[in-house]
Amino acid sequence: MNHFNEFAPNGILRAGMNLGNTLFTRQDDSGQLHGVSVDLMAELAKRLGVPLEFVTFAQPGQVADASTKDTWDVAILAIEKTRAQTISFSPAMTAIEAGYVVHQNSVLLLTEHVDAKGVKIAAPEKAGYELFLTSSLKNASIVRTPNFAKSLEIFNQKNVDVLAGLKPNLIESMHMLKDAKLLEGKFMTVNHGFAVPLGREAANAYLKSFVKELISSGFISRSIETHQIKGLTAIKE
Length: 237
What we know:
The protein contains eight helices and 13 strands. By secondary structure, it is of the alpha/beta class. It is elongated, with a radius of gyration of 18 Å. The model has no long low-confidence stretch (mean pLDDT about 95).
């Protein structure tokens, strides 16, 4: 089977779109989608010569979980090792730093202090950085939430010591947080790439060369600049 048939077996490219990451995808009041992910998916469909259909999900974990259910053909997700059990990823296209917010009176002064016994960290379940924390934390515990908004809520209620998130989202949310401060540094860099359900080897091979071309041509950088997305960086050659 060639890459065309693997991408669009029904003649339509079904793009799984994560509404939970506004750095990539935003939805206006009319339901129209905008953003870097829209530009990337439109370019892919154009290259393949097929119509494009958006399949929306509220959170990234829902996109990943649907990879075995034949609801989407391609998506853009954080590259993460547990997802690789059901998903093939392209090379990384973008980078976003993930960091922590703590309460003003917190004894935690540095990012590396956070992984301590008794520390509770709020993070959205199955977000790329939550999956990373799950596998890497040795002492602190994670309080998993349905979404980032819920993480903000329980942090404000002081039910947790730390709020984890993508740093651009944390910075944008500081005005909604009570007596909070952003810790310097990062606990990881989140890399995003195209994703296809595991087993679609021809599609995966095509995406490797496609992403390389997108990077070398500056397509991703231009899209980020057009949508004025702060904190999302295109991978360089």
